[in-house]
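for the recovery benchmark. tokens below, seq after
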């Protein structure tokens, strides 16, 4: 599967009063899926993404089947991409005890490099004005607007071009009736708005780091493995072109204790699990350097902030061992667009739109997030990961409800 880099960045400077019905901040899965649905319905949409496509992201790249049909409905020809289908789970404890189980719903593997790119292409074809290398530095809601007003611009976005190309330098502002916050786990806007999770001191739900590689390694294409190590866990599953994604989450403290050296942490901590030692010793690593992120938080967040509907990780992140943060991001884009559509058709007020979305979000995701936090607490410790694997081997029927508690249905 080949992808061609593109940087889609029209000069906003040349436009008078740049305005769209909808402005989307962040072009990951949540933002792209939202923008495509809105363009399909005939709304004018601008999407601002600070990176170029394609680009790599820290992510396990296992997508739960929940979102298969939804992605096809957006125009992604999943059936013809020859992607690995994954329906088996292996969990190993810190000291290498193994538990295997089938996955009730299962999933498929595709890199973020590939899927974000393909969705960005679809968005452009459907008329979304996609501005890459464009960072949103502020979004201000204009309180003067009347409750029912949809025609006038209610939000003003401050934009910054990150492109070196002087001709495409952007004007400072964009206006829209609706603004969607799909800017991921932690962005400049979270810090600027002093969102609660940014203010928290390091605790058991925050200050994690994520590290990802693409590798070639001979393992079953239908299996996702989750290998525990001290204070973390590492997932491995196949993606496109017979490559595998190897991605782990651990505490920032674990890295600090190893002199801030990833290599040293891997050798001293991850390799204690015999499965991980074998993978790290035998696999062909396809990146010169791993992709990394820090300051990951699983702390609850608000689903509406400053009148923006927050979608995807910007509205809360599920712990990655549940393997369905991406499906949740896409599902939230559907829930939020349903309300935005009603508002733009003047069928409901802005307040009703915000409240209905908050309720729908809570109903759909709150218990899954809580289950994810609970399961997370059993991973990454020698005692509890041994206990978990031991218990599951003795009572395998317990695994299915545990997995189901963190997953939803097709949407
Ligand atoms: C270690 C790890 C492993 C994971 N594994 C899996 C897995 O296997 N399966 C799964 O389903 N989920 C997994 N997840 C979760 C999954 O990655 C996220 O839930 C998903 O990426 C959320 O998508 P999103 O669109 O909300 O955010 P993102 O994909 O992060 O997109 C946000 C976008 O916003 C852009 N942006 C940010 N700020 C600005 C700004 N100010 N202006 C313009 N653009 C901006 C960013 O560049 C980014 O492209 C994992 C997470 C971690 C940390």
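predicted aa per position
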């Amino acid at each position: 599967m080949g992808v061609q880099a593109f940087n889609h960045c029209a000069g906003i400077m040349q436009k008078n009063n740049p305005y769209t019905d909808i402005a989307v901040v962040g072009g990951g899965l949540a933002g792209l899926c939202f923008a495509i649905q809105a363009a399909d319905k005939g709304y004018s949409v601008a999407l601002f993404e600070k990176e170029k496509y394609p680009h790599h992201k820290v992510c396990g790249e296992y997508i739960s089947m929940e979102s298969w049909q939804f992605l096809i409905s957006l125009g992604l020809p999943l059936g013809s991409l020859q992607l690995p289908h994954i329906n088996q789970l292996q969990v190993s404890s810190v000291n290498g005890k193994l538990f295997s189980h089938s996955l009730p719903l299962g999933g498929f593997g595709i890199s973020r490099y590939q899927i974000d790119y393909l969705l960005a292409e679809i968005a452009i074809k459907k008329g979304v004005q996609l501005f890459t290398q464009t960072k949103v530095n502020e979004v201000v809601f204009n309180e003067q607007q009347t409750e029912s007003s949809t025609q006038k611009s209610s939000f003003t976005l401050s934009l910054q071009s990150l492109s070196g190309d002087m001709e495409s330098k952007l004007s400072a502002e964009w206006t829209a009736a609706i603004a969607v916050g799909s800017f991921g786990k932690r962005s400049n806007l979270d810090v600027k708005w002093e969102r609660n999770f940014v203010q928290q001191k390091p605790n058991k739900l925050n200050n994690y780091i994520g590290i990802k590689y693409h590798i070639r390694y001979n393992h079953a294409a239908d299996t996702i493995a989750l290998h525990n190590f001290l204070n973390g866990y590492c997932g491995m599953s196949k993606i496109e072109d017979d490559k595998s994604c190897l991605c782990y989450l651990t505490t920032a403290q674990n890295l600090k204790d190893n002199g801030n050296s990833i290599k040293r942490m891997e050798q001293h901590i991850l390799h204690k699990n015999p499965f991980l030692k074998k993978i790290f010793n035998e696999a062909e690593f396809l990146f010169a350097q791993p992709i990394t992120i820090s300051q990951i938080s699983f702390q609850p967040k608000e689903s509406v902030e400053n009148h923006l509907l927050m979608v995807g990780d910007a509205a809360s992140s599920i712990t990655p061992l549940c393997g369905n943060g991406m499906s949740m991001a896409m599902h939230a884009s559907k829930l939020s667009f349903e309300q935005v559509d009603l508002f733009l058709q003047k069928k409901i007020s802005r307040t009703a739109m915000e409240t209905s979305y908050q309720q729908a979000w809570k109903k759909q995701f709150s218990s899954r997030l809580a289950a994810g936090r609970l399961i997370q607490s059993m991973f990454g410790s020698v005692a509890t990961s041994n206990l978990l694997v031991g218990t599951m081997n003795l009572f395998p029927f317990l695994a299915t409800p545990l997995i189901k508690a963190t997953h939803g249905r097709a949407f």
